[in-house]
């Protein structure tokens, strides 16, 4: 299948592209490079430098390349930035998406996998969140994505669009060639690894008086390869129906302190941390249940376990100290290190080497 990946130069998108290519698909990446990296896109994929709001460019891309399905990953997703620039977030996460839907409809492309967010559920959850739980987003990212989810539903009713919406919290980990590089970085694991490499002095812990096992917030971390696999699996249902699925880590999540301790063991570095006050609106526990996608599509996280996740991110960080700005110095060392990271599952069995 010829698949268009919007945002395919971004962190998760670049891994989705790798997985699609290894599954034998033909891939075109459509990305404005506002946050992504050209070097993150596999040389086996075609690349179009364009903004989703540029309908003409998008239309010619879909039509000339005979695109059959779209995986929509392009978005802005920093909660802090969204508070400063809400208009930008509505533009990218809602308007640009609507532009995509319009062009898809006019080009008779009716298959969409949408990378949404579990932020659509809001903040009042204590147990694993299920797809049937009410949505009540409290941040701009969640609100704009939920509005887009609703638009997608009406495009199905009116124009026969088929969609699979995937909702998840924290993507984490890396493959040999693709890892997380945002400017500025706000996600916990890459921030910790910046401390381990001396690029940052310490980690801020926002509150340690939550009713959790060690007082710090519990969050869900799903390996980026597992997320990418879910996007591929979701493509398979589109001939028959539309669906909404959560993707979770498969367990009860990890506290901030557990993540820091695990990273300290893996990197062999002390990770200084400072406990600050709670951030407004930060719930104690956010973990998604992936029971439905497990039952329907047989998806469950393969790289379960924080150690696997952090080890892969640490290998990538060491091999790419300047992110995508430098070509890897030793491919063999990298392959060995990443192979080691992926060589053990939490149950001790060997699994595939990347
Ligand atoms: N990273 C996470 O933990 C996480 C969690 C839940 C959901 N998501 C969702 O997954 C998707 C990918 O996230 P990510 O972390 O890889 O983000 P990212 O910022 O690394 O990648 C997003 C990509 O979209 C591109 N882009 C942005 N606006 C565009 C536009 N108007 N036109 C074309 N391209 C545009 C950027 O250049 C970038 O390459 C997003 O939709 C995000 O909301 C991410």
Brief overview, please?
It contains eleven helices and 14 strands.
Account of the protein in words:
The protein has 354 residues and is of the alpha/beta class. The chain has helices at 11-22, 55-64, 79-84, 86-106, 140-159, 188-196, 224-235, 256-267, 291-297, 306-319, 331-343; strands spanning 2-6, 26-31, 46-49, 69-72, 111-115, 162-168, 170-172, 203-206, 218-219, 221-223, 243-247, 254-255, 273-276, 285-286. It has a seven-stranded parallel sheet with strand order 3-2-1-4-5-6-11, sandwiched between helices. Strand 5, helix 5 and strand 6 (162-168) form a beta-alpha-beta unit. Residues 339-354 have low confidence and may be disordered. The structure holds nicotinamide-adenine-dinucleotide. Residues 6-7, 9-13, 31-36, 51-53, 73-77, 92, 96, 115, 117, 168-171 line the site of nicotinamide-adenine-dinucleotide.
Keywords:
354 residues; alpha/beta; seven-stranded parallel sheet; 11 helices; 38% helix; globular; binds nicotinamide-adenine-dinucleotide
| Helical content class | 25-40%
Roughly how many Å is the radius of gyration? 19 Å
Averaging pLDDT over every residue, what do you get? Answer: 90
Q: Strand share of the residues?
A: 15-25%
Order of helices and strands: EHEEHEHHEHEEHEEEHEEHEEHHH
- How is the main sheet built? 7 strands, parallel
**Secondary-structure-derived class:** alpha/beta
